[in-house]
Amino acid sequence: MPTPTAPEPARPEPHVIAVGAIQGLVDRTTDLLNTLADPEVTPDEITAVLREHGETDPATTAEDVADLRTAAGELRPVLTADSLDLAAERVNALLARAAHPPRLSNHGGAFTWHIHVDSDDEEAPLAEWFLASAGMLLALLISDRQRLPGGVCAARGCERVFIDTAHGSRRRYCSRRCATRERVAAHRARG
Hints:
By secondary structure, the protein is mainly α.
């Protein structure tokens, strides 16, 4: 009687990154970018966004908001690039500024293992942390998918950015709501 063999572990599909950790970073990055686009955003609003995404003690100051807004101003051009080469060039410039080797951290067991590319696991300035982690995210998406990592919503009047993790055709809208609104408007215009 033949000896049964264990089935081979499932292999991930090509061009699929560790979805859980990446999606959390995608959501945090887009929420911060879109919140920081409001010129009247307050430190409390930024703190709320950070808490929503799992940061335990993200008290922010007006200076943090100003620095984060500057960082967001450096990240948005990656998402508005009209070519993959330009997006990659812009990400490389962000990563060169970070200049800290990637490392794994679990913050002394308080979190699951994740990659850090900022200067310190606990004390790095918020803007440095935001720029470094978002830069690494965008680099991973570009290298894994070989296409633009996101964009600005194509819906009329919407300026929200998005990071594209969809498989298949390239995403054009920040949300289903904007996509539906545009489809309905196009349908009404035709008939």
